[in-house]
Amino acid sequence: MKMMKRSKKQEKLGTKHSSIIVRWVSIVALTIMVSFIIFSVIIYSIVGQQSMVQQKETSREMVVKLNDSLNQIHGELQISNVVPALTPSARKILQGNPPINPDEHPNNAFNDDLLSSLTNKDLNVVVYNLEKEDVFDNGGVIPKFKQFKGNFHSETVYKGRRKELLTYQKVRDAHKGKVTGYIVVANKMSYYNGLMKDLLKWMIRISAVAIIFFTLIAFIIVRGIVKPIKEMSRVALEVNADPNSTARISDFHRHDELQELAVSLNQMLDRMQRYIDQQKEFVGDVSHELRTPVAVIEGHLNMLERWGKDDPEILEESIKASLQEAKRMQHLIQEMLDLTRAEQINVQYPNAVTNVADVLKRVAGDMSMVHKDFVIRLDMDDMPQDTQIQIYQGHLEQLLVILVDNGIKYSTDRKEINISAGLAQNEVHIIVQDFGEGISKEDQSKIFNRFYRVDKARTREKGGNGLGLSIAQKLVHSYHGKIGVDSVEGQGSQFIIAFPSLTKKQAQKLRERDQAEKAKKGK
Q1: Domain at 347-522, CATH class
Q2: Where do the TM regions start and end (predicted)?
Q3: Which CATH code of 3.90.550.10, 3.40.30.10, 3.30.450.20, 1.10.1200.120 fits the domain covering 22-198?
């Protein structure tokens, strides 16, 4: 019960997952939001600083104009000497009269710079004497006096949600340099406050719209990316549940990494399916092939057990037949092992390098010695002696022995085997030619299949199990080579194999890797 509970708990944990779309879109939305906030803060700050500089300049100009008019007064500032010091237009404003009289020349009013500054509704101007008494102001809310250091002081204060700029200036007698009074200018900055309020409002709106818009775009893009992944996951789960499933990933009609991944996964699944089919075929063929020798041995042993052991002639015949079948089984098992090893070459011998000419000479000599009734010729005129390919030496020897032995088995009256090698277009071509029975067109496409024999009865007599050419093909393909056959019935066959040749630099690099790996294993 505890184990069942635990497995159910693990199953629940295994199925718990969060959506990639939600996570990716959340990350994108958060990134966009933070980016827009930072961008908005920067723009808001820059615009605010530039506008504040303009407002400070306006206040400072007002202070400078007033100071230029008042620093000519000798003694403490009073109403009696401040008002006459101002322009005629300014006096008219203080008296409640219009600044421009129709009877006067218009230039007299518009040339008065102080007039334009005093009529600015944002600026509240007040002049204080040394006793901090108001001796002049342009109306409105009078800013209070505040002690300050130095001749000039400026500060920003908040009135509710609005900013206000206060500027203070000491008025000094132009001749004696003594302080005669104070100028205070309060700038309500209506334009600045309105601008910053509207800017903030529009930035919030634009940012909200942009975040929503780009989040939708991100959702569409991410969903387009995740959709193929979901399809891959679905197919993987289906194949995992049923290894014999023919489900494959559909074409996404894309030209990107996901399409390449889908193609690779389909190729992998096809390869796995081939392995499964080959395994079933292999098990079935092996069972069939082993059934006959086992049945023969069992039959002879039963016969001997019943009555044959007392007959020396029957006993000898049964023992010979049983030994022959046992040897055939041993040979079959060895070929099966060779075939299994051939499928693991890329792991066992990834950096092997072999001189082709040396191996060809050795195999031709050995086969001539073993089969003295055959003439085995070797032609390497079209191949340099130092030609090298990426293959384990023992495997190239095994491959050549299989092809030569196959030619010898199927030879008829003309007992000749020709081995030729050449180098063309960076490929080493090796041809093993016999002059025997030949292979029909129909059988040429099947002879590399496991346990396939052209004439099973005759092949059994010759001692073949139908695995030799399968081993040869697997060896060639494992080393990125090609193998084919060209045959005419009654005239013979020639097997053609091709391997990519190595440059001296490539061969040296592979040898160095091989030595480095051996050194690692030695440690």
Answers
A1: alpha beta
A2: 21-47, 202-226
A3: 3.30.450.20
